[in-house]
Amino acid sequence: MHSARASLLSQDKPATFSRGPSQPALGRSPGALSLERLEGSQDTARCSPGLSCHLWGGDVFCLPGSIVPAPGPVLVPTRLQTELVLRCHQETDCDLCVRVAVHLAVHGPWEEPEDAETFGGAADPEAGEPRNASLQAQVVLSFQAYPTARCVLLEVRVPAVLVRPGQSVGSVVFDCFEAALGSEVRLWSYTQPRYQKELNLTQQLPDCRGLEVRDSIQSCWALPWLNVSADGDDVQLVVDVSEEQRFGLSLYWNQASGPPKHWWQRNLTGPQTITLNHTDLVPCLCIQVWPLEPDSVRTSVCPFREDPRAHRNLWRAARLRLLPPRGWRLDAPCPLPAEAALCWQAPAGGPCQPLVPPLARENVTVDEAHDLPLLKGHPNLCVQVSSWEKLELQECLWADSLGPLKDDMLLVETRGPQENRSFCALELSGCTPLPSRASTRAARLGEQLLQDLQSGQCVQLWNDGVGALWACPMDKYTHQRWALVWLACLLCAAALLLLLLFNKEHVKGWLRLLKEDVRSGAAARGRRALLLYSADDAGFERLVGALASALCQLPLRVAVDLWNRRELSAQGPLAWFHAQRRQTLQEGGVVVLLFSPGAVALCREWLQDWGAVPAAHAPHDAFAASLNCVLPDFLQGRAPGRYVGACFDGLLQPGAVPALFRAVPVFSLPSQLPDFLAALQGPGAPRTGRHAERVERVSRALQPVLDSRFRPGRGVGPEAGGGT
After folding, report:
1. What's the rounded Cα separation, in Å, for the pair 609 and 603?
2. Which residues make Cβ contacts (< 8 Å) with residue 585, sequence separation at least 6?
3. How would DSSP label each residue in 525-555?
4. Chain centroid, CA 276 distance in Å
């Protein structure tokens, strides 16, 4: 009669519950579980050795009652355990049943009873303790499983010899509560009178897939069986049913709280194979199938919880939204293990500086409003969302309503005892105390910033009584600095003019060189060159900066995001790239794609996931933002004559560039500098004697930076010089 026993789930606090399929309530198992079979429909109760118990016939009405103080010994429930069994009326006619075990303990010290009947026995004056005394309690078990609810009462007696205050005395087991496959069940247990709060337990019961019950429970006989398999980038759902059997299939997103979000539902005729694109996968995507019959059992499975592609898709779909006046929300199809913090983004670039205060890292609930304890918003205030200490999202939520990033300095005020106040300015190097003798920008303007604060020119963003945040404008100091720069330039121009007047021969020579340059480079002087690169690391950015600076010495007008960080932050990478690309191509210029290992990886990812939601990229990464517009030019054959590729010797070989981008010339620098510069000047541009001089000048600018990157003791990296 008994088969392998299913393990018990011990619970001494409410169980967490997730709507949708989960592991069976009986524990995790690599295969289906075999259940004990109980014959007949009679409820029974049994106790641990030494205890006596009695099940009151029929269901009772559960009265909540109030908690009663108990100085003397009482029995209280300490733990609930459940086990699934089968209650069978015939060999193939069984129902799923929940067996409940309540563990009991003694609360309070044993005292001599004034009334022997309280403990079920009379006192023995010679022994000094109750004779045949026992501790008695009524254990109430309440069970809910939609649409049914039951409440049973068990009477338990514990002999005095087993009573040990504060220790367990045993357990009472009830067989059993019938429940539907796949349903959610809730249990409560308490003793009467109510000496403490009840224990409660919530569990999701398995369905036909998780148990060896297909031959025992009639409702599982006609159940469609679902298999999930991968076919390249696609996922196939194979529904194994007989010919012409009608069944329902639903795809939905399982939510941590609230009802599931249905995505797709159809009534179909079997057998069927449904194909899903891998870009549709998210961890909480679940599948439910059922036969189209009255009161049919539904089978649910969530097969993508551990799929790496599903987790990548989930973060690509996640978005941060501002909720006026000072709230925000993380929108995503599924729950996310995420933390959020406020940070301050300087317009000059660099990492966003975390603010602690006013918002320490806290767990984030998806699709739930979160409040920011701010007095005012500011375009430089951003929200960072991290998962397992990895930054996944960053949005400056107020930029849309308050405009681009401002050149403001953030001052952090700390208030100590006796109204002592100290200030520091948040910079990339840290929080600089004011006043300070350091060489940073905030330290040089420390006195002026404190005066601005006292005169009310700074805006208070946050205040909690022991600290505050202030945003102080820096525009006037920037204007003063540029005024000094212009004055210095005018003085230098005047001095140069005087020197030229005193030496006319040098003036004639300068005019002669200018005339030659106009003749030889007139065709290329006004040509624009837009440089696009992937910011792999700071060393590669220095290399790109050296190349851009050297090209500016030639008759070229160079645009690169390194020199336009403020404009890039204000417009966003995609808008900035659109404007630069349109202007460059309208004027007959050229777009230069600088390939690096990181750029090649991004290109391959975009080629693989073409048409998917773009991956999250750094706030100043114009290369990642540009791929969605660059790829169509190459796919439609519009790239030749408008694009040029390049990579650096020792970092990447031209053969490692994806074949699609080799539709245009790809040069290796500095070994192929002559051909590279000729391609930048455009077709038909003459190669004068100054061409070799320009090649030498650019090579001299690049070589020190390349040498420092490959200096002994510094690793080149696994992808250096490598093609695939």
Report:
1. 10
2. 591, 642
3. HTEEEEEEE----HHHHHHHHHHHHHHHTSS
4. 23
Helix-then-strand count for the chain, H and E: 13, 38
Amino acid at 346: A
Quote the crossing angle between the two packed helices 673-681 and 690-709, to the nearest 10°.
120
Which of 313, 309, 333, 330 has the alpha carbon at shortest distance from 321? 330
Residue that has been written with the tokens 């309208």 in this structure: 586
Q: Is 128 left (phi over 0), alpha (psi -120 to 50) or beta?
A: left
**CA–CA distance, 616 with 607 (Å, rounded to integer):** 16
CB-count burial class (<10 Å; 0-12, 13-18, 19+) for 417: exposed
* Strand-pair partners of 150: 143
The DSSP bridge partners found for residue 586 are none
- Rounded-to-10 torsion of CA 507, 509, 514, 516: 160
Cα angle value 680/540/390 (rounded, 5°): 130
Peptide bond into 435 cis (omega under 30): yes
Q: Mention every residue, 6+ apart, whose C-beta is less than 8 A from residue 79.
A: 10, 11, 12, 102, 103, 199
Q: Which pLDDT value is given to residue 665?
A: 93
CA 263 to chain centre: 22
517 class by beta-carbon count within 10 Å (0-12 exposed, 13-18 middle, 19+ buried): middle
Give yes or no for a contact between 448 and 474, defined as CB atoms under 8 angstroms apart.
no
**Per-residue model confidence as pLDDT tens digits over 318-365:** 988 888 777 888 888 888 888 888 889 988 778 898 886 666 677 888
Question: Which tokens is 134 given?
Answer: 């026992």
CA triple 612-615-618, angle to 5 deg: 155
pLDDT of residue 127: 41
Whether residue 245 has pLDDT greater than 80: yes
Place of tokens 């950015």: 541
- β-pairing, 390-395 vs 148-159, is unpaired
Rounded Cα gap, residues 538 and 705, in angstroms: 12
| Bridge partners (DSSP) listed for residue 199 | 189
Looking at residue 302, its amino acid is C
Which one, of 90, 341, 62, lies nearest residue 186 by Cα? 62
